[in-house]
Amino acid sequence: MAQPLLTRLVLWAFDRFYHEGAWSYDTVAWLVSRGYWPAWVATVLPDVQDRPILELGCGTGYLQHGRLAAPQLTVGLDESAPMLRHTRRRLRRAGAAGGLVRGIAQRLPFGDHVWPIVVSTFPAPYLFDPATLAEIRRVLRPDGHLLIVDGGVVPPGLHQRAIATIYRVLLGAEQAAVERPGSGVDRRVQRLEQAGFAVRSEWRTVGRSQVQVLQCEVADGWHV
Question: Is there a contact between 25 and 83 (Cβ–Cβ < 8 Å)?
Fold first, then answer.
């Protein structure tokens, strides 16, 4: 079935934003989150500690910047060459050099069972593509984890309603962009569970905001 016109337009706009419009990413992220974006991304750092991680959709390098003490422990993958250029510049300004790879999540350029942790912060819908989730299971070690930071909630405003509208278009008209505590079924969790992950959802407070962390591990009985 062909995608509805509105969905195609939104996907096209997102593609332009992540490529030609990559220069505006940091500004847009700051506005959308009311300045909380870097702190939201950093909420996952205590979970990864000093272990190596693969970040899918590294964007402009907030997570790499948060691990400047040991940049070699973080490999960031992104399809967008402009995003990777921004990340390299950010790391150079900080006097560091992180591992960056251009590629797509549906075909990860890594061997089987090599990563203890895969991280994705505020992922685009590609993360919940069955092909992506199968690849994540393939590259994770048997005791590895997938950590997803998503669903940042700030005091209500026009920007939050706009984000909710975009996510409903991208993920389905019946799905909300942010599943707040107690709001019912989380469609992202459903997709993760269908792909063979056991999921634990946790909401963390950051200033006056909240952000959701999904901690996922391969469920018993699932094998890649």
Answer: yes
pTM, 2 dp = 0.78
Residue 85's nearest CA partner among 18, 11, 12 is 18
The structural domains of the chain, ordered by start, are 5-106+113-218 (3.40.50.150)
The runs of H, that is alpha helices, within the chain are 5-18, 25-33, 37-42, 45-48, 62-66, 81-93, 130-139, 158-171, 187-194
The sign of the dihedral angle between the CA atoms of 70, 72, 77, 80 is positive
> What kind and span of H or E run contains 76?
strand 74-78
pLDDT digits (tens, 9 = 90+) for 96-129: 777 899 999 999 999 999 999 999 998 888 899 9
Q: Tokens for 74, please give them.
A: 């973080």
Contact status, residue 156 vs residue 131, Cβ threshold 8 Å: no
Query: How crowded is residue 85: how many other Cβ atoms within 10 Å of its Cβ?
Result: 14
3-state secondary structure (DSSP) of residue 46:
helix
Q: What is the CA radius of gyration of the chain?
A: 17
Q: What would the two tokens of residue 114 be? A: 């090599």
Distance CA 157, CA 204 (A): 20
Q: How far is CA 127 from CA 42, 98, 148, 156, 214, in A?
A: 19, 22, 10, 26, 13
CA atoms within a 13 Å half-sphere pointing along the CA-CB vector of 87: 31
